[in-house]
Amino acid sequence: MSSNDILTPLDTKVSYREGKEDCPREVKLGETSHPVTALVTFPGADTAWIRRILEQLFGETTDDLYEITADLKSGNARRVLQMSRNIAIQTHSVRDKNFERALVVIRNPYSVEERHQVFRPDFIDWQKQYLWGDTYVSWLSSDLPLHVVVYEDLVESPLTELIKIADFLSTTDRKVNYKCAMAVAEKPPNMIYDLRQITGIYFSERKNINNNIDKVLQVAQTKFPELVDRLDSYKV
Questions:
Q1: Residue 155 belongs to a domain with what CATH number?
Q2: pTM here?
């Protein structure tokens, strides 16, 4: 394999380590426009890690809907006009009105980054306020083209998930680089799944979070049955 060879989503038997490309690769705005793609995550899902994976996979930038909106409110429309030249736009919103398709990342609502071992207080406790369930019920019910990524699958089988992501997002002018993406994907953030190590989750909180999971399960059973077992395993 030469240094100019690019792996495609169908090259599942080709070793991504054979490439001679330097990593990390240069990341820039896409040269052409593509469907505006949402990167749907929930706060605390280490979106920065997922964005770096996408950027290294395609060599194109990602952006943040909230920062784009803030710029627009201050009179700067440049980032709005460039949305279609990013590989994806990060959003925590429950609405899909700004997008043409979406990459939806679902993560166990009980898990937290290692540095966040205290369950968030009421005024910013997203799970207790039902927003985890609302976020994913809304997006999984969307009529937009969707690809759903289970965060834990991305951690456990990164190459398999990257091939699926590339298949969903690729166009003929996008060069896919699994080697550089895997260099990021193989170093996921440290997460805590053991509730005994997290302060502040009591019976009432578990009941609310489990109810949220059940709401998402109901939608998944119809539209994304492959998610059912994983979602059900989240409940404690």
A1: 3.40.50.300
A2: 0.85
CB count, 10 Å around CB of 12?
Answer: 10
Place of tokens 């040269």: 31
Provide the CA 215 distance to its chain's centre, in angstroms.
20
Task: Scan for tokens 């799944």, then name that residue.
Answer: 193
Mean pLDDT by 10 residues, the chain (236 residues): 42 52 90 94 84 96 95 94 96 89 92 52 47 90 96 94 94 82 92 64 77 94 96 91
Beta strands in the chain, from DSSP E residues, in sequence order: 37-40, 62-64, 88-91, 101-106, 112-113, 146-150, 191-192
Burial of 49 (0-12, 13-18, 19+ CB in 10 A): middle
**How many domains does one find in the chain?**
1
Is residue 205 assigned to a domain? yes
